[in-house]
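To close the chapter, one final illustration. This time we ask the reader to focus less on the individual chains and more on the assembly as a whole: which components sit near each other, and how the overall shape emerges from the parts.
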Amino acid sequence: MNMRTRTLLPAVACLLLAVPVAAQTPFALTNIGQRLQNQDARMAGRGGWGMAVDDSLHPGFLNLSSLSSLRHVALQFTALGDHAVSQDVHGERTTYRTYAPDMRVGVPVVAGRLAVTAGFLVDRSFEYTTAVDTFWTLWDDTLTGQNQFVREGSMFKVPLGVAFAPVPGVSVSAAVNLQRGTLRESLYDLVKEPTTVSGVPLYGTNLLVQQDEYQGTSITLAGALHPGVGPGAGLGLGLSYTPAYDVTVDRKYEMGGVSRRGHDTFTLGMPAELRAGLQAPIHGRWRLGADYQLQRFTRFTGPQEWVDRMRDETTLSAGIERTAAHQRRAGWSNLPLRCGVQTRTWAYDVGGQAVKETTFSVGTGFPFRQDLGQLDVALSYSLVGDLADNGMDSRIWRLALSVSGLEKWW
Amino acid sequence: MIRKAGTVNTNPSQRPVRAGRAALGLAAFTLAALTLAALALTGGCTSELPNEVGRDLDPDPIDVVLEPVLVDQVADFSALAVDDPEVPLNRQQVLYLGSQAGTSSSILVNFDFADIFTEEFPESLFTAEHVKTVKLSLTKLEFYAVGDTADTDGTDKVVQLYYNIHQLAAPFDSTAYPGPVPPYDGTELSRDPSVEHGAEPRIDLYEEDFLDWVASGQTVGLLIMTDLQSDPGLVGFGSRELAIFGELQDVAVGTVVAPNFAVEFEDGEFFLLPPVADTSTFHEVATPPADPGEGFILRTGIRSYPALRFDFSAVPPDAYINRAVFCVSNDTLAGFGPLQSLVVCELDTARFVGPQGGLTLDELGDEVFVVTGMTSIDPTYNRDLRFDVTQAVQRIVNGVYTGTRGLVLTAGEDFAPTYDQGTVDPDFYFGQFQFYGLSAADSLRPRIEVTYSLDGAVGGGGR
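The assembled structure is written out below.
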């Protein structure tokens, strides 16, 4: 089986797993939704840091400026599977989902100096459903049924970028991100009883749908510094900045059975985002790294019920990694090892308090022949929210799989 | 860091080995396959059904949910007279005799004596010496012969009739009916009008009268009326047009279903003379109420279908109709006739033409849109009738029509095949539902019980 097939086969499988994101956490029921853990499995395994990565054989797409070192066409696909247990005062619910939030390609234009990149990246997700049994009394009948609220959708972007290394050890990039997305909120009043003799409910179900279509464009500027020699040899620094941008929202309301529709348009003012990271060697194959992300959602503009609960979103990732080796007969000790921790404060409050998310992760990887690709696996455990502070919490086991492939296509 | 694929790593402690890498690549692929399988399994795992977890973050509910409103104001009404030109009264399969609910009918029959002799029954047989008895034979439909099968004693629906037979001044014109009884000779032709003949009337006539008609060789018209001592009620008999013999009781082979002369000769032979024309007179037909205040009717035989347009101003625009039930109550003491299908249809109010205007059956079929119906409704037993007209009311509330629409109640006509489950059409039996009108008690008056929901976001308002 050749390299291309070994790269493409898992990629195709990832695409097949790119099903619509199913239920995640009830924290996604409101506001701008959950920021997804969408890094590749290598970064996920070591806590999520990767702004300072610069590796031509195992490229990272978190800081696009690192792609300037590419000498081959790079493809990367990431798929995740979640098992979440969420609880609040009303009970507990276990949910599963699989999704493929990240697909990237990098193409060298001038090997080692200039590259272009494109991809698909899911940024935020809103996926959860609630159901409450209820009853109504009218016309001397007692009707039983259920109120359901279904929230579904995601915000994603298509980054189109260029990376350039003007001098060895320094790289810069610029990317235009086509921001798109859909949020669909459906309110149901399902009247299950009474029914006809054949079991068809006598009363029609209410369905009120509010559907938002998001559209916008943002720009991301990034840079990285990797002194290859001297006192800073092995160190890496990375920085990216996305200025504030607007997302146009086209909102439709419709109620099932009613011919008239409602329509509205408005703008979401997304705040600027700053990311910074570093990596440093520890000893031998070991190195450590850390990233920091800040997006001041207190400066967000949009629906007032969202604005009233916004707070600045911050993410701190840290971890260590033992890089892969190729020693003869070294067996499993040649494998990379990764572990890390990430803490995040969500962009909005729930229950009047900030939502804290802490994730512990481990990971490893398997290089393909001649280092023309990599298969990475990461397992993480996230604690989202606090029952006392937020009125609910979620505990999520997550398995991430990424496939990176390099090819000389010309 | 720029690394080149397939070259020795710069770290002097690491030396690539091709065989090791091949095994590593195979292990990598195997693990990838296993991991994909794990992911696929995870994808195949089913999340627990949604429950109340997270309900505190639900948005505001729909503004108005399952609000009941009673629509009982009728803005427009018409008692539609519906006629089927293909089946005029003189071609209907049933002849009616008697009086009920303001409708009265007698039977007219024409017999042609011009060419009745055959080889088997030559002219020489038709003499006083050879003719033993002459009877006028009628065949009741089974519904009128045996009564309501739900009755334990079978007496509730059977109408006791006594017959008066008269000769018309001239044979009747079959196209002139419904209409007044034509002139007739007051002489009673039956031997004994006080005899009740039961399910198969064989009315004794005078042989001399019959022989006089034979000798004249003319067409003779007879009038069959009910005697004053008869029970009230309209009773149906088979006509010369009858083709649906399943509506009869079992009759002997060779029976002529239409009114006919049954002549018994002294030698025991029977001669049957069928009519050349027969019709019901329906000389009195109750006028359907023009004002629904006091009630309205649905009538078969001589069709009259009620059409009502309700005032939906109490239902807000852009409402979602969860359910709408059209309720009518039938006065079981005033209704009569066999089981019927009842069908609710939409009809443009421009076609509310009233009894004077009238519609043909084809015109009605082209104009209506069938909404719903019920089968096997007994006008003497089923009182409260409820029809689900949810979709019709939703269409009206949505304003999809350029004009105004009402609801018309019909019998099970061919244009409503789902509800046309009987073997006979509505012109076969003369029956009537008597519905309570707008002046009746709340639980009896016609109304539509509407349940709707509404949200201000639809129709231009924001949330």
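The CA atoms of residues 161 and 172 of chain A lie 11 Å apart. Chain A has a mean pLDDT of 90. With these observations in hand, you are ready for the problems at the end of the chapter.
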